[in-house]
Hints:
alpha/beta, 6-stranded parallel sheet, 13 helices, 28% strand
Amino acid sequence: xxxxxxxxxxxxxxxxxxxxxxxxxxxxxxxxxxxxxxxxxxxxxxxxxxxxxxxxxxxxxxxxxxxxxxxxxxxxxxxxxxxxxxxxxxxxxxxxxxxxxxxxxxxxxxxxxxxxxxxxxxxxxxxxxxxxxxxxxxxxxxxxxxxxxxxxxxxxxxxxxxxxxxxxxxxxxxxxxxxxxxxxxxxxxxxxxxxxxxxxxxxxxxxxxxxxxxxxxxxxxxxxxxxxxxxxxxxxxxxxxxxxxxxxxxxxxxxxxxxxxxxxxxxxxxxxxxxxxxxxxxxxxxxxxxxxxxxxxxxxxxxxxxxxxxxxxxxxxxxxxxxxxxxxx
Length: 329
């Protein structure tokens, strides 16, 4: 029986430098033993800087490494399906970045592969395990604002500058062929997964999207409505073509007795208002934002706890995204 998770990481991009990569070495019963990039020099540099023993320029060589029993996939979404299936086929557990895939159909094939090969598959919707969002879930469970009625989410961001548009690290996120869509596909999985985490399964999703700024091919404005099976409603607006002064990251949950307000990507601060009285809950920033999720995933891979984010939830998020952005595959 496994007593330590020995990771192989596919992809050495910016997301792994601080958010996730170092956490694999800091979590109990976890060790990052190899990294992979198609650019061998980049893989070697990453490995040496982070004191990782091995590096590869071939995904299959890393997947086939007998020392590795779990794979972290940190590549653009287009490759998630292929890499996840290859890793599961090789008998490795998989932790895959969000969005789970370019669309729900690809996500479903990943779920099928996990079933076929009796493998473990966890989606990196890592905000579920962060203290600030666990506190929100606890407040909802204790009905701090009474019966929840509806949720309003606004995520408004400034237009990308010419310099940002020319940055290869941003360009792929704007290419629907690689990312599934634009910045909405990069950002919204976190927000939508939190809604599933807080409020459970959905009954209906309706949305519309378009491009108003004309700066790139992908949609820059998305709006959508959800009806949850428990009769709670959600309305969200994402716009990536706004003046700087109108920048906004706010989610407000309204109940029969009050509201809970917070920023999904901002500081760890919750504003609870009940009967006109407001209470604030503040949380220190995490050094590695994925560390709590990686810790939960390691426990799951070692059969010590349940899956912190099942692949089926990843598919549901992609189904909502497909519906909101009119990319029904």
